[in-house]
Amino acid sequence: MIPYSIYKIIHLLGILTVFLSLGGMILHVINGGGRDYRWRNPVLITYGVGILLALLGGFGLMARIGIDWPWPGWVVGKFAIWLILGALPAIVIRKSSWAKSFWWGGLILGEAQPISQGRSHSERQSGKGEPKEWLALGENAILTITSLP
Fold it and tell me: How far is CA 107 from the centre of its chain?
């Protein structure tokens, strides 16, 4: 059985790879680049591998912490964001006039991932679905985010 920490590394590596390649694509389009460029295939392959790693690591984490069907709302939210991120390369290339919006939208989607993990008070109290150390980290992070001016 693969440990929780390995799945977390796979998941985070996938997310890093997705945003690295997506940022490169968007920056290329912002600078006036078109559909055909020398690094198109390597960037798209990197993006696809990143999306796959993020999905693999995410489902592995869900299995390790015991989340079954029906998924909690935060998992559905993360999956919806994953689907949006999966479609972005095609949209970025086709709608080059929206490239600057995609730059900031990607940042917002990236920030929405951890925020989408909010749970109800009863789930937080019961510890359902997550190890205790993650609950403590998540609650501290949420308290820090909400206490900002």
Answer: 11
pTM above 0.90, yes or no: no
Please report which helix (H) or strand (E) contains residue 149, including its range.
none
Q: Count of CB atoms within 10 A of residue 91's CB?
A: 11
Contact 88, 102 (CB under 8 A): yes
- Per-residue model confidence as pLDDT tens digits over 67-82: 888 888 888 888 888 8
Q: How far apart are CA 43 and CA 46, in angstroms?
A: 5
The SS3 call for residue 143 is: helix
In the chain, where do the E strands start and end? none
Long-range contacts of 91-97 (CB under 8 A, 24+ apart): 92/22, 92/25, 92/26, 92/29, 93/25, 93/29, 93/35, 96/29, 96/34
Asked if 95 and 28 touch (Cβ cutoff 8 Å), the reply is: no
User: Cis before residue 42, ω within 30 degrees of 0?
Assistant: no
Print burial letters for 103-136: b (CB count within 10 Å at least 16), e (below 16).
beebeebeeebeebbebeeeeeeeeebbeeebbe
